[in-house]
């Protein structure tokens, strides 16, 4: 290191084009840039504007962070012109075309690696071919897994031991073996590909992901050691994976502008949103949001509305525009009870579209978070010290729910039991009674609620300390950067 003091590390960051993966990857690039590393984010023309303002702000502060745009082969892969993200796929059947387009990015990436010769590439888990592409040029690839150690450990347990195959039905309880805690699941909570559908295309893709993970330099985790120490140890020791927890990465967004502009443009002015929350008592408001790709039927939205009204607690409810039918005005009565918005005037705020989630969670009026248990949302709730009403839908969300409710004990479930991909209509409707019961338990101020709130608040403080200088995540990032410097030396 001392012999090359002037060489600056250069790291590529390559997220998959979906909000839940791009947002934390951009935060990670900013963390590296803030530590003196030259950071280049690779994306496509229509995705760059989603975070270009954030990157510009960091550049103006003197940090070396930039965006490199490569064309996205939408039409060549059988997608509509301009379809450059999972969020913009018009037909669920086209998801395989999207993955085909991702694979077609290998050649332009290799050309870029050859031209610029970065010292490392941090690439999304869903870009497994980047391990081989980087290896061609002797460049280490770090995998970004946008989830928890816990969920990776549960997935590994289910793949190794297949305990669900010893059950007679999808509703029979089984335990995931070999884990630090006794984690109970039922078959209907598991992804299709875990349940042994060998012809499942996504299952084949996940196998490629696992193989590429094993051959990569290591795994970058948006988590912090103190949150799930037993699972961080299990992942690295029992499963033999090299990993650096450097999160919660969302905490690099410190000022109001960063928080308000994270992700898409919000459907509500941040000052209007803050003003509404300012008028409420501390810990009195329930924030309801199910991420960027979740879809609910009108019948399910109606159950949520009825439960929120019956609970009697103030709420901010985010309903995504593309979840709703073609015309909100024509369709309003189908998913909202008659006169709902008039009755909820001043007590409930409905945001139709993207919401400034971090601003809402961090506000002192917010006392609970109804979430789909996507890892970004879960970790943002934990970082804000807010307990949760859990409603998992797909991906690894049922595993994350177990972490929240059973291991950390900072949440209560609505009783969701059906895993269904984001593109499929759900068979099961979660009834208002289950939703209302979980809301009343979390927001009602009883002893159990107070204990959950106290534990959540404590974790929020630990999360903030983890990313400060001398914190565990800060130290992990320091160690990783130093290791990458040493890795580079023999090459030069």
Strand fraction band?
5-15%
Model regions low in confidence, pLDDT < 50 over at least 5 residues: 322-330
Total E-strand runs = 15
Helicity level? 40-55%
- The helix-and-strand class reads alpha/beta
The biggest beta sheet reads:
7 strands, parallel
Named at the architecture level, the CATH assignment of the largest domain is 3-Layer(aba) Sandwich
Q: What top-tier CATH class of the largest domain fits best?
A: Alpha Beta
In the CATH scheme, what's the topology name of the largest domain?
Answer: Rossmann fold
Radius of gyration, taken over Cα atoms and rounded to an integer in Å: 22 Å
* CATH homology superfamily name of the largest domain: Glycogen Phosphorylase B
The shape, in one word, is globular
Number of helices: 19
Largest beta sheet: strand ordering? 3-2-1-4-5-8-9
- Mean pLDDT figure: 92
Number of domains: 2
Termini separation: 12 Å
EC number: 2.4.1.-
Keywords: Glycosyltransferase, Transferase
Protein name: Glycosyltransferase
GO molecular function, one term: UDP-glucosyltransferase activity
How is this structure best summarized?
By secondary structure, this protein is α/β, with parallel strands linked by helices. It contains 19 helices and 15 strands.
Q: Helix and strand layout, with pairings?
A:
Elements: E1 10-14, H1 19-34, E2 38-43, H2 52-60, E3 65-69, H3 95-103, H4 106-116, E4 120-124, H5 130-135, E5 141-145, H6 149-161, E6 173-176, E7 183-186, H7 201-215, E8 218-221, H8 229-238, E9 243-245, H9 256-260, H10 270-278, E10 285-289, H11 298-311, E11 315-319, H12 328-335, H13 340-343, E12 348-352, H14 357-362, E13 366-371, H15 375-383, E14 388-390, H16 397-407, E15 411-413, H17 432-443, H18 447-467, H19 472-491
Parallel strand pairs: 1-2, 1-4, 2-3, 4-5, 5-8, 8-9, 10-11, 10-13, 11-12, 13-14, 14-15
Antiparallel strand pairs: 6-7
């Amino acid at each position: 290191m001392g012999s090359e003091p002037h060489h600056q590390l250069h790291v590529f960051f390559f997220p998959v084009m979906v909000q839940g993966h791009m947002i934390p990857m951009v935060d990670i690039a900013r963390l590296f840039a803030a530590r003196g590393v030259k950071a280049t984010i690779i994306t496509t023309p229509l995705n760059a504007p989603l975070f270009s303002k954030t990157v510009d702000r960091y550049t103006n502060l003197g940090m070396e962070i930039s965006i490199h745009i490569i064309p996205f082969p939408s039409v060549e892969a059988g997608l509509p012109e301009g379809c450059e993200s999972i969020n913009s796929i018009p037909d669920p059947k086209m998801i395989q075309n999207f993955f085909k387009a991702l694979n077609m990015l290998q050649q332009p990436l290799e050309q870029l690696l050859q031209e610029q010769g970065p010292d490392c590439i941090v690439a999304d888990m869903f870009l497994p071919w980047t391990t081989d592409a980087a290896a061609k040029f002797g460049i280490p690839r770090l995998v970004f897994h946008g989830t928890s150690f816990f969920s990776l450990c549960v997935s590994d347990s289910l793949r190794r031991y297949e305990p669900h195959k010893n059950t007679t039905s999808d509703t029979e309880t089984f335990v995931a073996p070999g884990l630090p805690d006794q984690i109970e699941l039922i078959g209907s909570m598991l992804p299709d590909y875990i349940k042994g559908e060998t012809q499942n295309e996504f299952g084949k893709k996940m196998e490629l992901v696992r193989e590429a993970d094993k051959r990569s330099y290591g795994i970058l985790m948006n988590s912090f050691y103190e949150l799930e120490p037993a699972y961080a140890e299990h992942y690295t020791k029992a499963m033999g994976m090299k990993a650096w927890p450097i999160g919660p990465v969302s905490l690099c967004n410190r000022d109001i502008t960063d928080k308000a502009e994270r992700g898409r443009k919000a459907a509500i002015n941040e000052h209007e949103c803050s003003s509404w929350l300012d008028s409420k008592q501390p810990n009195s408001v329930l924030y309801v949001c199910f991420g960027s790709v979740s879809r609910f039927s009108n019948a399910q939205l109606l159950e949520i509305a009825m439960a929120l009204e019956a609970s009697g607690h103030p709420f901010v409810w985010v309903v995504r525009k593309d979840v709703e039918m073609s015309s909100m005005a024509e369709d309003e009565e189908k998913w909202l009870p008659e006169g709902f918005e008039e009755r909820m005037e001043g007590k409930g705020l409905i945001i139709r579209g993207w919401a400034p989630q971090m601003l809402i969670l961090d506000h002192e009026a917010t006392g609970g978070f109804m979430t789909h248990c996507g890892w970004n949302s879960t970790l943002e709730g934990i970082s804000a010290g807010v307990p949760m009403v859990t409603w998992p839908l797909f991906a690894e969300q049922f595993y994350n729910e177990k972490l929240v409710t059973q291991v950390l004990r900072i949440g209560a479930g609505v009783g969701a039991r059906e895993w269904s991909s984001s593109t499929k209509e759900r068979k099961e409707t979660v009834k208002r009674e289950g939703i209302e019961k979980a809301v009343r338990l979390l927001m009602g101020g009883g002893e159990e609620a107070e204990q959950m709130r106290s534990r959540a608040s404590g974790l929020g403080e630990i999360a903030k300390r983890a990313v400060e200088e001398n914190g565990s995540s800060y130290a992990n990032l320091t160690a990783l950067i130093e290791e990458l410097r040493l890795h580079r030396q023999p090459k030069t």
